[in-house]
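Re: Re: ligand-bound prediction request (bumping)

Still looking for help on this. To restate: I need the protein modeled with uridine-diphosphate-N-acetylglucosamine bound, output as structure tokens. Inputs repeated here so nobody has to scroll up.
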Amino acid sequence: MDKFVIEGPTPLQGTIPISGSKNAALPLMAAALLGNSPTTIHNVPKLRDIYTFNNVLRVTGARVDFDEESGTLTIDPANISFLEAPYELVRKMRASFYMLGALLGKYGEAKVSLPGGCAWGPRPVDLHIEGMKTMGANIELEQGYVIANTEKVLDGGIYELDPSSVGATINLLLASVLRASEFTIKNAAKEPDVVLLCKALSNMGAEIDGIGTDTLTVRRVDTLTGIEIDNAPDRIETGTFMIAGAMHPKSELTLTGADPSELGAFPETLRKTGAEVEINGSTIRVKAPDTLKPVSIKTRTYPGFPTDLQAQWSTMMTQAEGDSKVTDTIYYDRFSYVPELVRLGADMNVEKNTVHISGKTPLKSASVMSTDLRASVSLVLAAMVAEGSTDVLRIYHLDRGYEDLEEKLSRVGGNIKRLDQDA
Ligand code: UD1
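Reply:
Sorry for the wait, this slipped through. Here it is.
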């Protein structure tokens, strides 16, 4: 198992290219199964979750070619014969559950393992299943598996998501475009990843009304055709590096290849800390203020503050002059990073779904443990402003979602090394 050894504090100065989005790529990869010819996706990041999903696809018989050099992924569904997603793979990554919608939609049957537990609280899939039942699919749970089948043509109906869910919206789209005469998803997620999937499915030949709104209506078509499509830049990686650029008073980062239009209210929120944020096309420049101002936030669905940037924001707030609160309204239990930051010297405590932070506290090196993807990157951000040498253990979480993190940070002045944690 690897760890990072990070020597701080270091200001970050220079340019970081933004990678393709993991969360946008995964639904596109699932959608590729619905076509009757191969689909090619460009700008796919080299990340563990992508490799895992490649293997999930291969298990079915799909041919998957990933040209890592160019980030081009080609998926040919022609020889799919095994309509299952086994536990060994699904437990590694929840998004494998998209196989339920994709296989059911294309082949009328699927057997997909329920995703296992998760490091941050319960993350159920009840809405995915109830929505598919509303559509008219037969679904049973057996020994940890969802076993589903459907008629060739289903009536469809109306299903309202409560709460709104990115994953359920994606799964219901995948299940319905080839099956449901008319199916409406209310309170659908409007996250950019959902919009990109809708556009991809439309390009393949699907009929979807209301793209980009919270009411999506699907009318079935007989076949979909494979397409060539560009994956989106990663908006969470973008937000993470924007925060990195604001945390040390001498930092100034330029991010290239980003899509600022997908950041919702985030740039404006970051400006409230005193940071300079300049947007020019696909380039974002962030210059840290001399003194960071405390800014409280609440996570919301898009275009509100993303839950996937909550931990990074709290980490930055430990360096702001004054008190702030960070509330997660999407996931109530996503604060496992807090005790680790406290080990580094942060003054923060969790009450229900809010973390109260008192700044500014100088951070000092310690050994800390990654607990999930976004928590891990927050520990890296903290370590880069902490005095001394910090070990961030169990960084396999980071490898799921941040491409070339240590190279990108080293190039802009971070002092970060990957070592074998057990050596
Ligand atoms: C996706 C993202 C994840 C992000 C999250 C919220 C991917 C691979 N993951 O996760 O990084 O943090 O959106 O933006 O894209 N819920 C239910 N029942 C369900 C499904 C969801 O109650 O069947 C609840 C969840 O517990 C949560 C809320 O709905 O409180 C939103 O979750 P959801 O949008 O589904 O998250 P994911 O799609 O799993």
